[in-house]
Design goal:
Helices cover 40% and strands 14% of the residues. The strands form four sheets. It has a six-stranded antiparallel sheet with strand order 3-4-1-10-9-11, with helices on one face. A six-stranded antiparallel sheet has the order 5-6-7-8-12-13. The protein contains 22 helices and 19 strands. It has 607 residues and is an alpha+beta fold. It folds into four domains: 181 residues, Glutamine Phosphoribosylpyrophosphate, subunit 1, domain 1, CATH 3.60.20; 208 residues, 3-Layer(aba) Sandwich (Rossmann fold), CATH 3.40.50.620; 108 residues, no CATH class; 67 residues, no CATH class.
Length: 607
């Protein structure tokens, strides 16, 4: 379901075709679709109206109590769920955004004021905005540096409203005002596992209450297994959770299936286990251009056939309308390498040495080189690192993945053009000049905030893919309360960078089978990945002469060469190639799907 509105108090705004006001006396409109309806308070009692968009665990009494006072700073993450809060006033619209970007809101200047919407593509249709090449390049060549995006979306002129903020959209052409309301400074008190279990259980329980007939992934890994067990525990007595494990057709002895079966047996009174085989029609890279038109490239584009196959099967055979996954757990639960720099900056020498030795054993590296990198990173501010990034982008020899640094670079691919390099440098330069909205945080926490927001926002495109099958997709690990709980853990309680999700293990004590809780690896579909690339190589080669080439961002001849080499198994960095294919598939879906129409003969409802 898409929501939107205008900041102007007079009915000058058009409406998207098929939209309607969310309630009488309210200017906010909606376009019907999957999702939760808006909850409105104050529509008939005064000149101030409050609208909650998205899934929110607040009770009616909680919401009614908001009318008598200014909204609290934490209103967008005070309760479980992923949601935004809109205040309609006569002189402006105030939007309170969630800190994780799990429920992003966008805005664009329109006539006398501002238009806002939960879909950037719908706003692009209002303004006739085209695709932003610079944002596109950043997503292809440096997706691991979300700072390059800033407030830019994939459509020129359409801005994402800053997450974790109170934004005032004035009823005139003035810039919008922004007050940051979320700052994940360390919070003492309950140990991290207790806090995680409390907020994660609440996030899952909220979905179970909203739809007791939901289903859940059960991949055999810690993240989805934890979500599935919490969901099963939250179900009413007598109901059982449909838990789904996908696996290659004919392979019934894989590690993922073994661990999933252990969990299902341990919860057999509350869980029904379904094993879903995937055939050649579900291979990665199959029909990737069949993705729907979305606000941004779909993260699951390359595995579209697998996700679509699973969603359609669950919708048909289980009747599932809501599905939970463990996606986002890796970002929330792991510490980035910059944690080592934080230990050095805080003079925790013993802890830094211990973690360097532990990490060096895993990486077959030397502790001294890790500590040297960490010391260098500890001496750099985020702004300084961004300025350095602007100078270094475009190097074909840099490969910083896994190193202790602010913004790891990957080799600039030979198929990317000089125009793409210039756009990337421009993005880095703008990011270096922008004011940091979260100053004073430890480096690892600041980096995690960027990463989680990127993962959570882009997950809405995956949700759109699932919605095309009639299934509402949810990722409880990306709920703002869960993200806040993990990002506010004090330095001394943060997990070691070489440990495997110890906070989640401790949080789930007594709920997971011991063997499952002790698992420190995850299965892989890597063999299927290369099989799929080879099987679909002709279609992938055709994508080289597409929109990216037309925009002057890639050299199609060189791109095809690297694709053939990758399919042949020649070792080479694949990440940028995969991102380019994902972006090209998105561009094709965008250009073949007409933008939603806006009806200028009707005006947005006003009281």
């Amino acid at each position: 379901m898409i929501f939107g509105g205008f900041s102007t108090p007079i009915g000058t705004g058009p409406l998207p075709t098929g939209s309607q006001p969310v309630s009488a006396g309210v200017r906010t409109w909606c376009v019907q679709g999957l999702g939760v309806s808006a909850r409105v308070v104050g529509a008939t009692t005064g000149r101030r109206r409050i609208i909650v968009l998205g899934l929110c665990g607040a009770s009616r009494a909680d919401l009614d109590g908001l009318l008598d006072h200014p909204l609290p700073d934490d209103v967008a993450w005070r309760w479980p769920g992923a949601y935004a809060v809109v205040e309609e006033r006569e002189d402006a619209v105030l939007i309170h955004t969630d800190p994780a970007s799990a429920y992003p809101v966008y805005a664009i200047r329109f006539h006398e004021g501002w238009a806002w919407c939960t879909s950037s593509r719908l706003l692009a249709a209002l303004q006739g905005a085209g695709v932003d090449p610079r944002r596109l390049v950043s997503s292809i060549l440096l997706p691991s540096v979300p700072a390059l995006a800033g407030e830019h979306t994939f459509f020129s002129g359409v801005k994402q409203l800053p997450p974790g903020s109170r934004i005032k959209l004035p009823a005139d052409m003035r810039p919008f005002g922004c007050t940051v309301t979320w700052h994940p400074a360390p919070v003492s008190g309950l140990p991290a596992p207790h806090r995680l279990r409390e907020v994660l259980a609440a996030a899952v329980s909220l979905r179970v209450t909203a739809d007791p007939d939901l289903s859940c992934d059960l991949s055999g890994g810690l993240d989805s297994t934890s979500i599935a067990v919490l969901a099963a525990q939250a179900l009413p007595v007598g109901k059982q959770l449909p838990a789904v494990t996908i696996h290659p057709d004919g392979d019934l002895e894989g590690a993922d299936l073994r661990y999933a079966r252990l969990t299902a047996v341990a919860n057999e009174d509350r869980m029904v286990h379904f094993q879903l085989p995937l055939g050649t029609e579900h291979l990665p890279y199959t029909a990737i251009t069949a993705v729907p038109a979305t606000d941004e490239p779909v993260p699951s584009t390359l595995t579209r056939a697998r996700l679509i196959g699973q969603m359609r099967w669950m919708r048909t055979h289980l009747g599932a309308r809501t599905h939970l996954t463990g996606d986002g757990g890796d970002s929330v639960l792991f510490q980035p390498p910059l944690h080592l720099a934080d230990l050095i900056r805080h003079r925790r020498w013993r802890a830094a040495a211990g973690e360097a030795f532990g990490w060096a054993r895993l990486r077959h590296d030397t502790p001294l080189s890790l500590l040297r990198d960490a010391h260098r990173a500890a001496c750099l501010t985020r702004h300084e690192a961004l300025r350095q990034l602007a100078q270094d982008v475009g190097s074909p020899d840099r490969h910083d993945q896994g190193q202790v640094c602010w913004f790891p670079l990957v080799p600039f691919p030979s198929w990317a053009t000089s125009a793409a390099r210039n756009l990337l440098a421009d993005a880095a330069d703008e990011a270096a000049r922008a004011e940091d909205q979260l100053p004073g945080l430890d480096s690892s926490i600041r980096a995690l905030a960027d990463e989680v927001r990127e993962i959570a926002r882009s997950a809405t495109a995956d949700a759109a893919l699932a919605a095309s099958c009639g299934v509402s997709l949810h990722n409880p690990f990306l709920d703002p309360q869960v993200v806040t709980a993990m990002l506010t853990v004090p330095l001394e309680q943060r997990p070691a960078i070489h440990s495997y999700k110890p906070v989640l293990r401790a949080a789930m004590t007594g709920l997971l089978p011991d063997t499952v809780a002790a698992r420190d690896t995850k299965g892989s579909f890597e063999a299927d990945h290369f099989t799929g690339m080879r099987a679909n190589l002709p279609d992938l080669l055709d994508l080289a002469d597409g929109h990216l080439a037309e925009l002057g961002l890639i050299d199609p001849v060189r791109f095809r060469t690297k694709l053939r080499e990758a399919a042949a198994g020649i070792p080479a960095p694949l990440a940028s190639i995969e991102q380019a294919l994902t972006a090209e598939a998105w561009l094709r879906a965008h250009h073949r799907t007409p933008l939603s129409a806006w009806d200028h003969s009707v005006k947005a409802h006003h009281d």
